[in-house]
Specification:
Oligomer: single chain
Largest sheet: 2 strands, antiparallel
Number of strands: 2
Strand content: 5-15%
Order of helices and strands: HHHHEEHHHH
Radius of gyration: 18 Å
């Protein structure tokens, strides 16, 4: 609590994020995706937008190529990702979503849409749009508008 008796804003954001992620994990687990790791959602959205190389994935995750390779290996082992030859470079291999990966991404997207509809019913369209505006401002319009980030939205 702050001196004004209100919960700290950062704590509220953290609690809201934890609640959202907890509900998302429960929903996707109920859909048969109970083995998802912490970064899987971002990788699923990245590859759902377009296949990429390990180097491209590392850049998008802002981690080393070794780290991206470990994540891809793990997701491939669990059946979410597959590697295919790059048609434009015979030496390269592209990461693609497998059928299981596409289904997991579709389930996560359904949850996101359902969650927002539930908020709209509970709080109203105006409140949800205001929250979207606040979150966009906090994230930074420049960041939200990048082509890479925009590709993850669909």
């Amino acid at each position: 609590m702050t001196r004004s008796g209100k919960l700290d804003f950062g704590v509220l954001l953290l609690l809201a994020e934890q609640e959202f992620v907890g509900e998302l994990r429960a929903y996707t687990a109920a859909q048969g995706f109970d083995d998802q790791g912490r970064s899987d959602g971002f990788v699923l959205r990245t590859l759902g937008a377009a296949p990429t190389t390990i180097t491209g994935l590392a850049e998008r995750l802002d981690i080393t190529k070794q780290g991206a390779s470990q994540i891809a290996d793990d997701m491939e082992r669990r059946g979410y990702v597959e590697r295919r030859p790059d048609p434009s470079d015979a030496r390269a291999r592209l990461l693609h979503l497998s059928a299981r990966g596409e289904a997991a991404l579709a389930a996560a997207r359904r949850f996101h849409q359902t969650y927002e509809r539930r908020l709209r019913r509970k709080l109203g369209d105006e409140a949800v749009e205001a929250m979207r505006g606040v979150l966009t401002a906090m994230a930074g319009e420049a960041q939200v508008s990048t082509p890479h980030f925009r590709a993850l939205m669909f």
